[in-house]
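fyi for ur records
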Amino acid sequence: MKKECVTMLLAGGVGKRLGSLTKNLAKPAVLFGGRYRIIDFALSNCINSRMHTVGVLTQYSPLELHKHIGVGKPWDLDRMEDGLTILSPFTENDGGKWYLGTADAITKNKNFVDRYDPEYLIVLSGDHIYHMDYDELLRQHKEKKADVTISVVEVPWKDTSRFGILNTTDDLKIYEFDEKPEHAQSNLASMGIYVFNWKLLKNYLEADASDSASNHDFGQDILPAMIADNCKLYAYRFEGYWKDVGTIDSYWEAHMDLLKEDLTLSLNNKEWRTYSHDSNFGPQLIGKDAVIKHSLVNNGCIVSGELYQSILFENVEVGNDSVIKQSILHPGVKIGANVHLERVIVQENVTIPDYTKIIANSEEEPIVLSSDNLKAVAN
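which gave:
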C-alpha cells in the first residue's frame, strides 16, 4: 500500500550518561513528567501530525520499551494496514548484526520502508522532549524542493560541542555539517529530525553499507556525503521547547521546566496532547496538614508532608512532616516521616526510611537514589 511518507523512530539509545536511570532500560523508555516515558513525546507528535505509518527501531534493553509501546494503542497507531511496527535487529540467511549506527539502522530496514513505496522518509530520535508538527516540516521540505530537510534549534554557544552544528546561508540552505565542533561557526544544532527523499537516500545508504571505513551514521557519513555532492539540504528552524535529556542535570532541568508557567511545552495542552498508558490509579489524597506548592502530583499519590517544586509520579506516598524540594519521585516511591529531600531523583519503588536527610546543593548534579545506593548516600 503506497504512502506519501513513512516515519522511522530511532529508539535504541543506551543513554550511558543517565547512569542508573538506564541501567536496564533503553533511554527512550525512561520515565518522564509524572506519567510518561520519553518516547511518548515523539509518538504523540506522530499521531498529532497525522503521521500514521511508524517504524520504531529498538536495540538496547528493549523489554520494558516493547511492553510500553505494545501495538501502539495509546497513540491510535494500532491499525491494520499501516500503524506502528517495532523493528529490532534480526538475522537472515547471510547472518545479521546489531545496528551499527543511525544510517545502518535504516539500511537494515529498507524492506519495511519499501513496502509503502513512499516519496519521503522522516527519521526521528526517540529520546527528546518536545512538541512538534512534522507535517509543517514536510511542507517546508516540499516548498523548498529539498533533497533533505533537517530540523534545527538554537542552542547556547557553550553547548555547541555537544551537537551536530549546521552552517547555512541566509535562506537556510546548508553548506556544512559540523559534528560536535570544538569551535563552532553557528549555534544551529541538529535535532536529529530529518526529512529525506526516499529514493535518493536509498542510493546513499547502499553506498554507505559497502564502505568498510564508514561509521554508518547520518551526521558523520550520509549528510556530509550529500553536501559534498551538492544535494539540496535545508534547515527547518524550530522555535518551540526542545530538550535532549541525555544527562542527569538535563533530565532534572527538564522536569523543573515543566513547572514554568510560560513554557511553550505544556502537558495540559488540549490541542496537542501527549498520550501514554493510563494505570487507572485512584485520585490523589492530600492530608489535612499537607503543603503543596508549585508541584505536579499524579494519580494514586498520598501526601501528608510538604512539597515544593517537585514532581510525583503515580502511587507515591509522602509521610508526615517530610519536606520534598525540587525533587522527582518515580512510581511507587514511599517516603517515610520526617524525611528531607532536596534536588533528588528517587527511582521506582524505592522506600526512604524515616528521618532520612539527603540534599544536593545547587552546584552539584542532582542525586539519583536507587535501592542499590540508598544506604550509602543516606549515610
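Residues 198-209 form the longest helix (12 residues). thats all i got for now
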